[in-house]
Amino acid sequence: MTVRRANEHLPFGEKRDPRFFGQDILSVKQFDRQDLETIFAVGHEMRGMVERVGTFDLLKGKVLTNLFYEPSTRTSSSFVAAIERLGGSVIQINNVTYSSVSKGESLRDTVRTLESYSDAIVLRHPEQGSAAEAAKAASKPVINAGDGPGEHPTQALLDAYTIVEEMGNLDGLTVTMLGDLKYGRTVHSLARLLTLFDMKVNYVSPESLRMPTELVAEVDDAGIPQIETTDLESVLPETDVLYVTRIQKERFGSETEYDAVKDSYVITNESMSTAKDNMVVMHPLPRVGEIAEEFDADPRAAYFRQMEYGMYVRMALLALVLGRA
Ligand code: ASP
């Protein structure tokens, strides 16, 4: 009897999990609990490898395109770090004014061009639905790194991974999302992803920046208890994860509209005095005043650790999508 090992016929190092290999990553809706377990397990291995050897050749020979039509610090640089730590390389386009986009090239044509040089494309774009549109034009995998106020699936994966690393699990927790829940794509993706777990969710925002009703309905359909309020104090004592967001200035029609809500909530040492000792405060960053710097020294401040987890999760995703995890 011949014992065939899984993936035996593939070139050295190739391991293709059909749930991920060659797939676009467009929305968290495409994942189930088992997918998350896989991503987190691979992410955990990536962390161990980075701690032991720093850089290794799992994705040697693979080229990633980072195509950013909107500003980014963490998402863009963590994808660069992720592919480079895995031995691959990156085509970085983060100032489209210097590319043919400024000559009027369509997103579809730009994506078709870049996929002929690379193995996957990470795309950030101001329009909701743009990643899905790019994925239709491309034959290589497209990873949505934020489509306007739509979704930010890789952020939600790293957020969920952060919760597991910090709190030990995802089931049984109360998550409070605070800030701009209308335009914040990270909370849209996270709320959807949390429906895979046994959670309770509170939404705290100014009246004008409430979570979109269709999203609340989706979460409700999944049987997740939700509370909407403008009053943080009323839900803070029961909160296990406080997920703070920035008011998304760039999505407002006018400066006056933004000014009316910009300082609605500010986390300080004092405002956190009624919160549990065993809880975490997260933020996708950048922050623009909604968490006072004095709180950074508090052990519950997890937002800087959250950034680091992001690199491991993105390493895991790249390895899975490119067929080597
Ligand atoms: N960096 C996150 C995003 O791109 C959060 C933010 O910008 O407020 O959505």
Characterise this structure.
With 325 residues, this protein is of the alpha/beta class. Helices cover 34% and strands 14% of the residues. The chain has nine helices and nine strands. The strands form two sheets. A five-stranded parallel sheet has the order 7-6-5-8-9. It has a four-stranded parallel sheet with strand order 2-1-3-4, with helices on both faces. The radius of gyration is 20 Å and the shape is globular.
List keywords for this structure.
325 residues, alpha/beta, 5-stranded parallel beta sheet, 9 helices, globular, disordered N terminus, binds aspartic acid
Largest sheet: 5 strands, parallel
Mean pLDDT rating: 94
Number of helices: 9
Bound compounds, each kind once, are:
aspartic acid
Structural class: alpha/beta
Strand content: 5-15%
Order of helices and strands: HEHEHEHEHEHEHEEHEH
Gyration radius, to the nearest Å?
A: 20 Å
**General shape:** globular
How far the N terminus sits from the C terminus, by CA atoms, comes to 28 Å
Uncertain spans, ≥5 residues at pLDDT below 50? 1-6
Kindly state the number of beta strands.
Answer: 9
Side by side, the strands of the main sheet go 7-6-5-8-9
